[in-house]
Amino acid sequence: MSIDVEAQLSDLKQKVENMQPGGEPKLSMIVFSGELDKLLAAMIIATGARAMGVQVVQFFTFWGTAALREPSVNVGGKDFMSKMFGWMLPKGRNKLKLSNMHMAGMGTAMMKDLMRKKNAPSLDQLFEIAAQLGVQIKVCEMSMDLMGFKREEMIEYPNLEFCGVATFLAEAKESSIQLFI
């Protein structure tokens, strides 16, 4: 029985190539949390990866969508539940609380002060850097609908897209790194 080593080697090479994502490396990240420290981590990872030449796609869903609300925009025409969610959830990224040691707002203020003293970029600055670097933000339309948010009340961001989970999964399928924050 003769073994065709060349054919087996060629087949194995093809399988390895199919396993690796093509082109530029990609990071797909689900941003589920609506807490300050977790959003800071998501934005630091996103901007760091982008600075290293990695494509970055963030999928904001559920509590994470509140961080994308524009504080100065008020949208009418909402039902009772939508109004309640809008009232209870933070309006924008600068209203987010820490996940631990919030201490009635004192922990959040201390963290922001420490970041300023250590010259760490603020959340606003991280969003600006992300936009300049081309980090893509995709917002889950189903989560927005459940939370009662409308497109008009979301932030202006150059690479923002409203989509469903299938769009994110297609991105994640092509990614070498997937994260859930």
From TrEMBL:
Gene3D superfamilies: DsrEFH-like (3.40.1260.10). InterPro entries: DsrE2-like (IPR032836), DsrEFH-like (IPR027396). It holds the Pfam family DrsE_2. Signal peptide: none annotated. It comes from the Bacteria. This is DsrE/DsrF/DrsH-like family protein. It comes from Eiseniibacteriota bacterium.
